[in-house]
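Q: what sequence does this backbone want?
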């Protein structure tokens, strides 16, 4: 596969995390990554590793084969429309990780026929542990393989229909925050029953990692693994049932649907 230069437009939380992950993966060398932001102060760490930081989006776009847009949703049209004539559909692809901006809209912004990709990663991309959902249009076979390979280097990828992209945002991207809130609550409980915060943090985080690994390695449904933990008349089922009485599953399901409706209905 040919080497490609990447421009990341919008070096905020996710844009920087993508740059960090790409650097760690070695899939693209530091000198082939440009990241843009209006104020470059927070990009010093990436610059020290050889990434080029820029305030000039036009220069970054012109130099790139792959343009990854990581701007806030309300900024995308305004910022990218200024560079409409700079996009070259014969050699570039536009990859958006932006919530709620469709491939139709991206094509309108970048010009009809522009190869466009929507990717929905999460912040674990910084450590090559993202869950990334992808869909694309107008891409060449080589571009489609390249972009999947890039995200495969940065975690796990799945190809989805665009109509599921908002759902992917909630389950995969927001999901990091939801999982961390579960861990935070476990830490608070752990402190109440005797652990110091560092030990509670380690136990809660490693336990969640182990639970996730059981599902992923065995391709199992959670309840199969839960059944192995719940001793009859034991403490696990007593705790689980109390959590359900207090609305544990229901609160998560409701939170996920409210989050989804926030994207879909605004
Ligand atoms: N943070 C997350 O976990 C995830 C975010 N997303 C999506 O990624 C996008 C970015 O999200 P965050 O990184 O959290 O937001 P952010 O606000 O941290 O990053 C956006 C960055 O764009 C920069 N920016 C604004 N105008 C610019 C311009 N004209 N040129 C260059 N840079 C400019 C801002 O200074 C900021 O650093 C959003 O659309 C969000 O929906 C998607 C999945 C996960
Ligand atoms: O909260 C948000 O809107 C963005 C989208 C997914 C993660 N953060």
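A:
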């Amino acid at each position: 596969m040919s080497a490609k230069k990447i421009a990341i437009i919008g070096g905020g939380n996710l844009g920087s995390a993508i740059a960090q992950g790409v650097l760690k993966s070695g899939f693209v060398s530091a000198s082939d990554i440009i990241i843009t932001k209006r104020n470059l102060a927070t990009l010093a760490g990436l610059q020290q590793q050889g990434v080029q930081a820029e305030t000039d989006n036009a220069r970054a776009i012109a130099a790139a084969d792959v343009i990854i847009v990581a701007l806030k949703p309300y900024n995308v049209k305004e910022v990218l429309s200024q560079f409409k004539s700079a996009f070259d559909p014969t050699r570039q692809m536009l990859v958006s990780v932006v919530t709620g901006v469709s491939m139709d809209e991206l094509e309108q912004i970048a010009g009809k026929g522009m190869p466009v990709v929507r990717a929905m990663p999460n912040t674990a991309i910084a450590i090559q542990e993202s869950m990334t959902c992808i869909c694309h249009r107008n891409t060449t076979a080589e571009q489609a393989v390249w972009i999947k390979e890039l995200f495969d280097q940065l975690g796990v990828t799945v190809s989805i229909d665009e109509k599921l992209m908002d759902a992917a945002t909630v389950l995969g991207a927001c999901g990091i925050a939801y999982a961390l809130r579960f861990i935070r609550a476990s830490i608070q409980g752990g402190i109440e029953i005797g652990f110091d915060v560092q030990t509670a943090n380690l136990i809660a985080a490693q336990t969640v990692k182990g639970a996730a690994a059981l599902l992923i390695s065995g391709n199992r449904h959670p309840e199969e693994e839960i059944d192995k933990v719940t001793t009859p008349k034991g403490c696990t089922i007593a705790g689980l049932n109390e959590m359900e009485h207090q609305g544990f599953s229901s609160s998560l399901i409701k939170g996920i649907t409210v989050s989804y409706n926030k994207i879909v209905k605004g």
